[in-house]
Every structure is written in C-alpha cells, then in structure tokens.
Amino acid sequence: MTIVERGTVRGATVDERGNVRRNGGDRGWPDHGPWGNACNMLLCVLAVAGIGLSGWAFAMEFIELRDRGESRERITAGCGGLIDPDPVLGLNGGTDRVELSDRYETDLGELSSGCLVHRVGDPGTAYGHFSMAVVRYSSEPGAEEIVHDWTEIDEWEDEPFRRPYGNEEPAPGPVVNHALPHPLGDGGLGEYDEYKVTARAVCAKGGEVSSIEASAVAQYGERVTAEDRRALAGLARQAADRAAGRTGCRADLPRLPATLPEPGKELGAVATTGGTCAWYRRFLATQERGRLPDLALSAPAGRASDRDACVLAVGESETRRIYPGFVKSSGYPQTLEDVLKYLPWWVKTDTYVGDGTRGLRTGRVGDQTELTPGTAGTDSAGTWWASSVCGGRPALHVLWAGYPYDRIAADRLETLFRAYVDDATGRRGCTDVVVPDAADFERS
C-alpha cells in the first residue's frame, strides 16, 4: 500500500487521505451527489432571484411613493390648499399619478374658480378624475355679477330628460338626465346628486362675503360608490370651510350626516311619491288629475335646504290617452312615436334660497327673463316664478313645463303652481310670498 505523505501544494495543504484543503479553511464546493448539487444550485438561483425581486419591489415602491408625493403636491397647489390630496387620490379605486389642467386656477380673489384633476394612465394618456369649484358671493348683490354667473334654468342641458345621442336607439320610456339634489342632512350644509356634492358656508352678516359654495365632482364615468360619495362630501365641506376662513366669512358649518343614500333616477307612481313631490300627491288627493302627470321623481325634502326640485311626467299609457284629443285640437305636427321616444311631457319645480337666487334667468337664448327676488311672473318659454323670504334670505320658487305640454296643461298650471308655492314656503316658514297674477297665466 502506498502512503501519500502529508504535505503542501501551492496555496493548499494535502492531508493523508489525499484531500486538498485550501489554506485558510475549506473553500471548496462540497460534493453531495448529482441531486444534492442540483438542489444547492437551485437554492442559489432562487436566492439571487429573490434578491433581484426585492430590489425591483423596492424600486417600484420608491417610484410609487415619489409619484404619490408629486401628485399630492400638484393637488395641494392646483386646488389652492383648500382640500387634502389623499381623499382625491383615493377616488375610483385609487391612483398615485395625477396631473392638473392648467386651464383652471383656484383663486379666492375671483368670484368663481377651481381645479381639474386628471388621472394619468399609460404614457400619453389621461382620464377624468375629479374637479372642485368654489364660488364666492359678495355681501353687495350684483356688485361683481358678470354674465358667466347667470344660471339659466331651462337650457337644453338642464331639461330633466335625456334625448338620444346621434344614432342611439331611444329607450322605451323617459330617461331622467340627472338625479335631483338631495339634502346633506337637513339641507343646512348643502346638497348632492349622483356625481357631485355641494357644501355651503352661509356667512354671518356684517362681512364682505355673503356665502361660500364649494362643489366636489367625480369626473370619471363609473358609478360613484357610497365610499366615494362620502369622500366627495368631505372634500366639499373642507373646501367650503377653508375658503370661508380665508375670506373672512364667519360661518359654522354643520357636520356631515351619518349616511348619504344613493340618489335615484327612476320615475314612480304619484300615489307613492314623497319628499319634494309630496305636495303633488296631496294636491291630487283633492283634485281630478285630468291631463296632469301620473309619474313623479322626488328627493328627500330638507327642512333647511337652499335647493330642491321635483319632476313630474306623463307616462306612456296616459300620453296615448291624451294625445289624440290634443292633435285634433291643435294640429300638433309630431307623431305619437316621437313624443314617446324623444319628447316626453313633463313639469319641473325648483326652489332656490339665498345667494342661489342671484343671476337666475329663464327662457331661450336671445329672449331671457331675469327672476328677481320680491317679484313674480311668467316668461315666454313656459316658466312661472314666485318669490318669498325664508329665514331672512330671499327665495325664488319656479315651475316650468316643456313645450308643448305647457299648452296641453295650460288650464291647470295656475292651481298646480300655487299648490307648490304653498308647500315650499310653508315647509320653510317663509314670509312675504309673492305669486303671479291670474293674468300672467292667461298671457302665457
């Protein structure tokens, strides 16, 4: 048997078994057989991959934090510091990347201003996300009023029913354009609909500002969830509160209500309607309906609401019943099918209290009528208004009917409108009520 003497080789030591050991310890790869070596190699690969993924995750988290930080700064700057940016970023499932439109700038020195936030998607793309508008009303009515501050209540886009677009197939019945304003609590804070929340700070008398109105609007196409509606309400209240503080408006804003029920857009039978249309149900309990509407869309009636509305409409079966006699007596050129699909017959009532009465106009372009607190009357476009004083603040109460329904129901509109005004003013405890003369309805 040959014995190999223990010795050294360059940089290594050879023991009596012939194994080579590197100086400074065993630096070799232990031999665990083919399967063992493969497992060790796999573990090494996974370890290296894990380190790489951890680095990638860290980098991505850093990028997201950077994007979110930059987005927060943009919202704070673009929206004038009136709202916290995180609730804005959390809307519609949340995002870390937004851009602000440079067409808008929030400036409380202006009568109205705001910001528009775009959600950034793939490179070169942006989507609607959120907007805020702030309106400041001076204590001197009309001192700063401009044409852009007018509210035109019967333009095409303000009609209660949506008409088909282009080649769109008409719906089988009337499609409500927007939900009616719902009160925030008792309405003292403001109101909301399906995509917008408006909060209002009514200032104590004696200052330069009468009130501040702030609206938070969801600009994305998806349905606004209950969580997002709550976030919008918080943003609107926060903007109104901060704007009031910065403009010297002394106001005590009510808290947000515990719940914000989802606004509905479905017409229902008059017999079951309530809220802002309850007056019409009570009216028909003592009156024959005749050619008056049989459907209604209402909202909860807030005792302190500055804004509420009711929509009444003639359903398909009633339209079919009324139409032949109307065509025979008037020669109305449109077909029954056109009325059912495109031009439903309707009546809408609205009440505006406080600074919402400023700049209110009715009528078609080129033939507009100003609705002034303390007055009452009618215009040439099927609109009637009355006025009152509610809690020391001016109020306007409006009824308008779509053409040609203002002709179809002409003999009933005076008593209908007076019933509405009695309810709207009685519910709020208003005084100094002024209503149109009977001659105003005869001239319309």
Protein architecture, described:
The structure is a single chain. This protein has 444 residues and is an alpha+beta fold. It has helices at residues 33-78, 85-89, 226-246, 278-284, 316-330, 336-341, 405-408, 413-428, 438-443; strands spanning 7-9, 12-14, 20-22, 98-100, 112-120, 126-138, 151-152, 182-183, 190-192, 196-202, 209-218, 268-269, 295-297, 307-313, 346-353, 360-362, 369-370, 377-378, 383-390, 393-401, 431-434. Strands 12, 13, 14, 15, 18, 19, 20 and 21 form an eight-stranded antiparallel sheet that branches. Strands 4-5-6-11-10-9-8 form a seven-stranded antiparallel sheet. A three-stranded antiparallel sheet has the order 1-2-3, with no helix packed on it. Strand 1 and strand 2 (12-14) form a beta hairpin. The termini are far apart. Residues 1-29, 146-150 and 152-156 have low confidence and may be disordered.
Features:
single chain, 444 residues, alpha+beta, eight-stranded antiparallel β-sheet, seven-stranded antiparallel β-sheet, 9 helices, 21 strands, 24% strand, globular, disordered N terminus
Please summarize what this structure is.
With 444 residues, the protein is α+β, with helices and mostly antiparallel strands. The protein has helices at 33-78, 85-89, 226-246, 278-284, 316-330, 336-341, 405-408, 413-428, 438-443, and strands spanning 7-9, 12-14, 20-22, 98-100, 112-120, 126-138, 151-152, 182-183, 190-192, 196-202, 209-218, 268-269, 295-297, 307-313, 346-353, 360-362, 369-370, 377-378, 383-390, 393-401, 431-434. Strand 5 (112-120) and strand 6 (126-138) form a beta hairpin.
